[in-house]
Every structure is written in C-alpha cells, then in structure tokens.
Fold each of these.
Amino acid sequence: MTLFEHLGELRRRLIVCLAFFAVAVVVAYLLYGHILHFFEQPYCAVQPNHCRLQVLGPLDAFGIRLDVAGYGGLALTLPVILWELWQFVTPGLRAREKRYAVPFVFASFVLFAVGAYVAWLTFPHALGFLNGVGGHGIVANYTAQKYLTLILALMGIFGATFEFPVILVALELAGVLTPAKLAHFRRWAIIIIVVVSAVVTPSSDPFSMLAMAVPLLVFYEASIAVGRLLKR
C-alpha cells in the first residue's frame, strides 16, 4: 500500500471508531441512572443514611450527565477501538509478531479492567478513612462533580498501573531486560513500587496505596516467571 492508501485506511478506521463512540454516548446517556447508581455504591456503603450527591449550580446536573455519557461511551467503545487498531496494524506484522500481539492486546484490556474494578472495590475503605480523618465535627457532603472526578481518576490510574506486567514482559521479549536483572533489582523494585503507589493515588489514603502496591509486587514476580518461561 502507498502512503495515501495507508492514510485512507486509517481514516476509515477512525470513522468507524467515531461512529461507534457516538452510538455508545447515546446509550450511556440513556443509561445515566444505572451508571450513576454504580458509581454511588461506594459512597452509599460509607454513608447509607445520606448517600445523595449534591450540585451547586443549575447547569451542574446536566454537565455531570454529559460527562458520565462521555466516559461511559468511551468505555463501551474501547473494545471497538482496540479491534480497529489491531486490524490496522495486522497487515504489517510478521507471523511471530502476530502470535505475540493477540495475547498482549487481550492482557492489556483485561488488566486495565481488573485495575479499575480493584479501585472501585477499594474506594469505600478510602472514603471511610478520608471521612474519619477530619474528626467528628466535619460532616461529609460531597458534590457530584468532585466525587465522580475522584473515583474516575482512581479507576483510571489503577487501570493504567496494572499494565505494569505487560510492559515488563514486552521489554523482556525485546531483550532490554532479562529475568535475571529483574530478580537482581527486586529490593529496589519493592521500594520504588511502594513509593510510586503512595504518590500516584489521588485519594492519598493507605488503603488505595496498599491495593495498588501489593498487586504490582505480585505482577513483578509474575513477570520474572513469565520471562523465564519465554526464554526457555
């Protein structure tokens, strides 16, 4: 294919992704109540007697609905985006590269979803800690905008950091790292993982930090084992 043919193919893939995204946004907009209820569950688990988010302006509620529709549409479109990306790059890959690409794409999607779900499960404990640290004289009454921003940021960061083993295994396959090097730097890796987990968690609570650090340490050891297996 010529350069212009590649660009035409890329444009066609982008149009398909945008079309699916537009449909997914409409679906998420119609399912707004169910999506908001899903995100409210951690809040209701901490404050069962007062689990209603508030807004401070007349247009805030509509803006929140648009935000939820946009994020929900993006989440629904993600499998289509990955599929179209795979279809675009597949003709340029060798047989060996295709063999590795499929599990890498699948593992990336699954690990991101698992990371986001772990953040959602951890969030009630984080909220309980944040509510209690201010003392009994402070009553928590969250705005919908700040609450949704925090939980979505936490889920996004957890999903991104759970891609850690995919990156390590890719570097091992590329010859940049070896299982022996990873095992040699294990102590430094433990320190770095704990520090990074404490820094990047937006809620800054110990529960979120441990929920991120412990799986990353397990992923580090699993990457060493997978690297040794692939080397054999």
Amino acid sequence: MNICTIDGRRIEYVRLPSSHPRSGAPAMVFLHEGLGSLSMWRDFPQQLADACGCEAIVYSRHGYGRSDPLTKKRTPAFMHHEARVCLPQLLDQLGLDRPILFGHSDGASIALIHAGGTSRPLTATVVMAPHVLVEDISIRSIRKARDTYLSTDLKARLAKYHADPDSAFWGWNDIWLDPAFRDWNIEDCLPGIVCPLLAIQGEDDEYGTMDQIERIARRCRDVELVKLADCRHSPHKDQPRQVIATVAEFVARILD
C-alpha cells in the first residue's frame, strides 16, 4: 500500500500490474462504492487487470479504508468535488494519461461526473450500478442499511476494511438521507462524455432501477448497456465472470 496527499488528505492506493500487459494500454482506475474501500475490492481489480492487460490503480477516497477519515459532514456536492478536484489530483500525481475509469455505485457516479464534467481526456469509462439521480428505492435501501448498522454487527464487519467504520458508514448514509440531497442529479454531465462508455446493472439491484442506465444511454454518444439477471447492486460480486468477460471484450474493442 502507498500513500499520497490529495486535497490535503492522506489517501491510500496501490498499483497492480497486469500479468498479461497489453502494449500501450492505459491504466484502469477503480472508484469504489459508497461503503467501499481499496481492500473491499479484494482480488477483483487484479483479475480485471490480468484479463484486460491494463495496470490497475485502486484507492480509498477520503473517509474510507486507511485514508484520512472525515472531519465534517458531507454536502450534496461531495461527488462533484471528488470528480473535479480529487480525482484529477490523483491522476496527475501518479502520472496517468488517458486512463480507463472503472466505477461502482457512488464511484460510478464520480466517474460519470469526471468524464462529462471535466476537459480531461479518457480512453473509456466503465460504470456498474451508477446513480444519476436519487430514486425512492435508493432511499428505502439506505434507510434499511442505517437500521442494520444500528442493530447488528455491521460496524464490526466494516472495521475489517475501514480504519474508522463510523466515518465510512455515516459519511455515506447521512448525506444520502439528507433532504437536501433528494434533488441531486448529474444528467447534465452526461452529454459531455465523449469516450466509449460501458454501463452494467443488475436486474435485482436494491439501490436503483434500470432507469439509471437507460437515462445514460439516452444522453451519451457511445454507450453499451449490459443488464444482468440474478444480480443485485454489486455485479462484480454476484456475476464476476460475466463482468470480467464483458469488460475485457469492451476494452479489447476500443484498444484494437
């Protein structure tokens, strides 16, 4: 594990070389979900790096993993800040040119904002279970998660992956349940995405409906949608082989 300073905070990251590197391939940068971290990806980034021939860059955002914990409550603009301020600083510090972004859930939303809301060139963007607006199903599931955190051993389980599980959980849960966040919407960023885009979503996603990726398809230029049966909010856990095969084929198509 390595440490860099992004926006004044210590951020943990790793660089994972591919076992089968593709000549000239860009790095793939992984952006985790709202309760995720570097370690919660487990070996998935390495598997995808090996399949795609790309180096994998995996990091924990501020408030997660072994990165600095939060010191104040997030605002509704937190994902825009991550996309427009923090992610560009990370890419610059690591010398990453035209990367492929791979985002899950909140991380997918950050990837979309960065791809469509900055002028920085990307080779491609892959998003799993992205949020482009707040749906009732999202709020219901996030409220259920709050009850679970307060009544079960979820905090202890998250402590395996986060130095400060309260920072990780409440930083995510509080802002999503804040009434001020109900009108959050990033559809205005979508027409600005010019790189190829792959959007993956499970048909049984408990945090969002297919309307999320269908809205992306209506507003972006070069989009491929993949809808997975028997799959919930984490396709890389529920359908890992299918996700790896799909992403590897997508990457090969755009790099060949």
Amino acid sequence: MNEVKGLYKVRDISLADEGKKRIAWAESRMPVLMALKEKYSASKPFKGYKIAGCLHVTKETAVLVKTFAACGAQVSWSGCNPLSTQDSVAAALASEDISIFAWHGMSVKEFYWAIDETIKMKPNLTLDDGADLIFTLHKKYPELAESTIIGGTEETTTGVHRLRAMADDGALKYPVIAVNDAETKWDFDNVYGTGQSTLDGILRATSVLLAGKNIVVAGFGHCGKGVAMRAKGLGANVIVTEVKPTAALKATLEGFRVMTMDEAAKVGDIFVTATGVKDIVVDRHFEKLKDGAIVCNTGHYDCELNLDHLKNITKKVQEIRPNNEEYLLKDGRRIYVLAQGRLVNLAAAEGHPSEVMDMSFANQFMSQLKLAELYRKGKKLDNKVHDIPAEQDQEIARVKLKTMGIKIDKLTPEQVKYQTDYSSGT
C-alpha cells in the first residue's frame, strides 16, 4: 500500500498531481511566506544546512518545506500525528525530491520509524510540533543533539511546555525557539485557526446542527477560546471547564457558563478538549454522558479522552461514518468519538486555514534563519527555550496587513518622545 522509493515513503505517489494543486492553493493564500521565499531564494541562506521536520503534512506545511528547499536547505520530513497527513500533499513533496516519510493512518511504531528516518541525514536544525523529534534525538541520538544540531524551533503549546520543563531540568542539549509563543502565532493560529478548523472537523465527521447544542469546551487557553468563540457564533450554548481561576473568570466575563466537568458531563451534547493535559474526560464522566453525546479532542495528544475507560463500559464499536465511531455502551447509551480521540481539526478536516498559518510559518522560517545566521557567525544561543523578538512579531504583522491592503497610523516623533518621558504628567 505504501510506496517506498529513494528517500521517501508515502501512501501513493500517483496522488502527486492532486497534492500540487492543493499546495498551489495554499501558496495563493500565504503571501508573507511567499514574500520570504522570493527574498531569500537567490542568496540561499540555508545552503549547507540540513533541516529535519516533524510537523503535520498539510498543504500549508508543504509551502514551508518548499520555501526552505528553495532557499538552499536539505529537508527531511515526517508528520507529527499519525492521522494528520494529507496523502496527496506527501506525494507531491516526494515527487519534487523532498525526503518525506508520512502517510495517513500510521501506527505508533510507524510514526517513530518515520522520525528515525528523518534523523538519518544527521540534521543541523530541527523543526517540531509537539517535540517528538527533539525527544527522540535526546533519547536515541544524544551525540547528534550535543554535537551536530545547532538549534530547533517548536510550533505548539504542548511542545513548548514539555521543552521548558526539560530545560528547567538541565536536560535540553540545544537551544529551541518557541514559535508557538509569538503573538503572531498563538493569538491568530491558535485562536482563529483552531476555532474554525475544529468546528470544521466536527461538522465533516457528524454533519450535526450546532445551533442550540450544549458544547462543552475543556480549557480556555488560546485554542479553547477560539473554539468557544466560533461555537457561540454558530448558535451553540457554550460551557467551559477550567482549572485556572483567571481563565475561568475570563470565560465567565465573555458570557460562557463555567462549571466542572462532572457537572458538564450531565448536560453536554458535544465535548471538545483543548487542554494539553491527559484524562480530561474519564470513566466517571462517560458514565454521566447522555445518549448520543459526541466527544472529540483538539489538543495535541490523544490522551485527553481516556478511551480505555470508555471501552471498559462498551459492548460494541462501529464506524458510523469517516472519523466517527459509535460506542454502544453496556447500558444501551451511544457515545460518538471523533477521529479516534486525535486532533479532530486535522484528522477529520484539513487543519488551520492557510491565511493564519502564513504568519506561523513565517515565524518558523525567520527563527530557523536566525539560528543558521548565528551559527555562521560562530555564535549560538544558550541551551534553553527562547522567545521570538517582539520586532519580528511586529514586522510579520506589518507585512500581513500590507498584503491585506490595510494601512495603520504611525507615532509622530513627539509621541515617541512622550512615551519615554517619565517627567510628563498632568
């Protein structure tokens, strides 16, 4: 079923033409990244550098990969989730001599095999979404992490949290830039991207009416906030569950009902977990769900829904429609699990819209470029997790506004002076 040739393994290389059309569509919606490609393709600042990437193989990711290649990098790629790869996109990249190891429906063993394959080229730089590539390097290839790799970038909240904990323990062997924590990433990609694509995944897997439904959103961080906002816009009654007092208070003042998951389990129609923490919906919650309840996850890992607990009270499981499994419980109730508990927005839909990934991936490109340029100058960041400079955030936002035809005001010299004149008063 999976084609192996040269330096790639994909589902079906004959899907390449379809994938190229998808990538072309994404390119037409990602003007910031395309501008970077045009700016740096002649000078090729990544010439001589090898980038190993572990990030969802979508049409938007393909634009980023092709940008790196056009700017001189040797790239080897795998998907960061067993169910998120778009097979036609993977085939398109393989057909253009990109080293890629990814297909939809990978087993866990195949998932880590693919990561191992990307490491075989002995990369200088890593690009992660969830930190599985970085952890594999540290666990299985510590000599590469210590001596060959000059730095990496991390795309998502879960990965940044894991890496900060690793750095605090003194275990991180090379510097990582937290792309996720850029304002032009988590206030846009995480909020608007996750909100829209999560509901897109739910609708593709179920086609249910959202208006009037009680939708329970677990977690009111950037991603959960986006889901809650979009669900409210479609007429749902949104309930938020939280463990952080300030986040719960924000949700309350936004007009959402806030309660514990134990309470929400009794009244929810659709449950969406967005916490980055395991065991958000467990046995005692499944015991309370109403007949016909739908549960799904939009956090990075599939541990937020404890499906082993659900299986313990289930007598039959059947796929009702793509990415939608009916669990018939021993007491006769039916619970519907979407995308096997994995990222519903990527497994059941196409992930975030290209327009918001444009800024996220521009940050990825600029951060990788910074690491390469520092190394070229004989410098290197400390082995910890680093934030993106505010100047980079503002420049990417400025370019994005320009591509949208939007102009904004500028501070006058007098206003700039006023901002720093602490003697000014009433």
